[in-house]
Design goal:
By secondary structure, this protein is of the alpha/beta class. It contains 8 helices and 10 strands. The protein has helices at 3-16, 29-38, 82-90, 116-125, 140-149, 178-182, 204-213, 216-224, and strands spanning 44-46, 57-71, 79-80, 107-111, 133-137, 153-158, 167-168, 170-171, 189-197, 228-229.
C-alpha cells in the first residue's frame, strides 16, 4: 500500500544524497513490523497502527491513507453505507440487487492475513475474521486486477493505488480524497507508519531518510503519490 509513496520519496532522497542507497521491499505490514523488531530492517513500514502486543517498537505516522472501496466498472452501484459494506463483506448481503445494483452474486476479493490494508478495512468496518472472501490475494495490484476482471466483484485497496480499471464508490456519500481523509469525513482510513526499535538509534543515513519523510520537503511527494502528508 505504501509503495507509490515510498518510491517517490526514495527517488528524491537518493538524488539529493547520491552516496546513500535506500532499498524497499513491498512485503506487507506484518513483514515490515517483524523486520524492525528483529533488526533486519532499519525502518519497517506498516499500513496500520501498531497493536498493543507489538511491544519494543515505536510507530510514527508519516502519512494518512484512505482505503477505497472498489467495484467493477460495469457495476451500477455508486454509493454504499458502512452498514451495507459490512453486509457485503460478511455475507449477510449476497446479491448486488439488495444495495441497488444488478441481480448478481456478490464476490469479495481482498488481501491475505497479515496485510495492513485488510486489517484496516476489517477493523473499521467491523468484520474482523468474518469476511466471506472468494479470493485472498497478496498484493494491491492483484486485488485491482481481480475486481477489474469480475463484474460481480468488490474489494478494497489503498486510495493511492486506484486507477481507471475499477470504479471507486462513495461511502455514506463521501468520496475518498486527500481532503476528506484529512478532515476525517471519509471514515475508512488508516495511517502509514514507520516502525523502529524502541531505544535504539538509527544510523545517520536511516535517520536522514526518516527526517526527510516527515519534513515539508516530502509532503508534496506524498500528496502526489495519492496519500495525505502529516505536515
Amino acid at each position: 500500500s505504501v509503495e507509490k509513496v515510498i518510491l517517490a520519496m526514495q527517488e528524491s532522497f537518493m538524488n539529493a544524497n547520491p552516496g546513500v542507497d535506500v532499498t524497499y521491499d513491498p512485503t506487507g505490514s506484518g513483514a515490515g513490523i517483524t523486520g524492525a523488531s528483529e533488526g533486519t530492517l532499519d525502518i519497517g513500514l506498516s499500513s496500520r497502527a501498531l497493536k498493543e502486543d507489538e511491544t519494543g517498537l515505536v510507530g510514527t505516522t508519516f502519512a494518512l491513507d484512505g482505503i477505497a472501496i472498489i467495484v467493477n466498472n460495469e457495476n451500477t452501484v455508486t454509493d454504499l453505507s458502512l452498514e451495507q459494506i459490512k453486509g457485503l463483506a460478511d455475507g449477510t448481503i449476497t446479491n448486488w440487487s439488495e444495495v441497488g445494483g444488478p441481480d448478481a452474486p456478490v464476490v469479495l476479493i481482498g488481501r491475505e492475513a497479515g496485510s495492513g490494508t485488510r486489517d484496516g478495512f476489517e477493523s473499521i468496518v467491523g468484520v474482523e475474521d468474518k469476511c466471506a472472501y472468494e479470493q485472498e490475494l497478496t498484493s494491491t495490484g492483484a486485488v485491482l486486477a481481480g475486481v477489474a476482471a469480475n463484474p460481480n466483484a468488490f474489494g478494497y485497496v489503498s486510495l493511492a493505488s486506484v486507477d481507471d480499471t475499477v470504479k471507486m464508490v462513495t461511502v455514506d456519500g463521501v468520496t475518498a480524497s486527500e481532503e476528506t481523509v484529512k478532515d476525517g469525513s471519509y471514515k475508512i482510513q488508516r495511517p502509514f507508519v514507520f516502525v523502529t526499535k524502541d531505544g535504539e538509534e538509527l544510523s545517520a543515513q536511516a535517520q536522514a531518510f526518516y527526517d526527510f519523510a516527515l519534513s515539508e520537503d516530502a509532503a508534496e511527494l506524498i500528496a502526489a503519490a495519492g496519500a495525505v502528508p502529516m505536515v
